[in-house]
Amino acid sequence: MVEKSLSISQATREHIVEIAHTAGDILRRMVNAHPDVWEKSPGDLLTDADLAANRYIISELTRAYPSIPVWSEEGTPPEDTNQMLWLVDPLDGTTNFAHRFPSFAVSIGLWAPEGPILGVVHDPMREHTFSALRGHGATLNGTPLNVSQVTHLSRALMACDWARGEARERLLGLLNHIGREAHAVRAIGAAALGISYVAAGWLDGYFNANLHPWDYGAGIVILQEAGGVASTWSGARIALTQTSIICTTPALHPQVLAFSGMFSRGNNVHAQK
Fold first, then answer.
1. Which domains does the chain have, with CATH numbers?
2. Integer distance in angstroms from the first to the last C-alpha of the chain?
3. Quick one: average pLDDT of 108-135?
4. Whole-angstrom Cα distance, residue 130 to residue 138?
5. Is residue 120 a contact partner of residue 108, using CB atoms and an 8 Å limit?
6. What's the rounded Cα separation, in Å, for the pair 202 and 185?
7. Are 213 and 191 spatial neighbours (Cβ–Cβ below 8 Å)?
């Protein structure tokens, strides 16, 4: 299947789901095969499964959509990021994978300068495929998704994931407040899944102090198409930069933002819906 134009359709969505499934098969085959593990930097792991899935995804995207650059976690950013881009994390949750903890995913998103267009997050261990196309809703294995109806933080099941360095200190600061107010807080270990779980209504909110574009490249449109809200900790719109993130139901967003703003590097409030 080769798309000769930049027209993004339901057929494109289905094609990306197929690519994510095949990449997920690669991960599932390798998870118990004692994969080679390296450290890209202290605490930041890379496995041969990341690289194998990455090679496959990039080959398929460049073959089928040659005019759209690919920005992958295991690659380098394009010179011009102010254009339509594929954002790829071939293995979101590498630390989980390296420990054979079965919570990881393939994440493939498509962004334009005005924001996210298409997203697919595939969990090969549970056979969960979250997907969305702007204006056409979000689904899990074909079933429509909607965020939860929780309106008060005291009833909310929240989730977060760890950061490193200064970002971890900010995360711990926010967690100290959210943990006191929320019903409970969980750690997922894979941002793409955390965001998708909010879209599915399994979580009521997810926050992270320091993510890269490939971490949320697919999840944001899935969340938004399910009726959720995403912003930075200061309430700014999500852009293709290394950033903090809050993903919640519309009712919970201002409640979380009231705490997160204390630990943010900025204070512009323009939530992305």
1. 10-144 (3.30.540.10), 153-263 (3.40.190.80)
2. 32
3. 97
4. 7
5. yes
6. 12
7. no
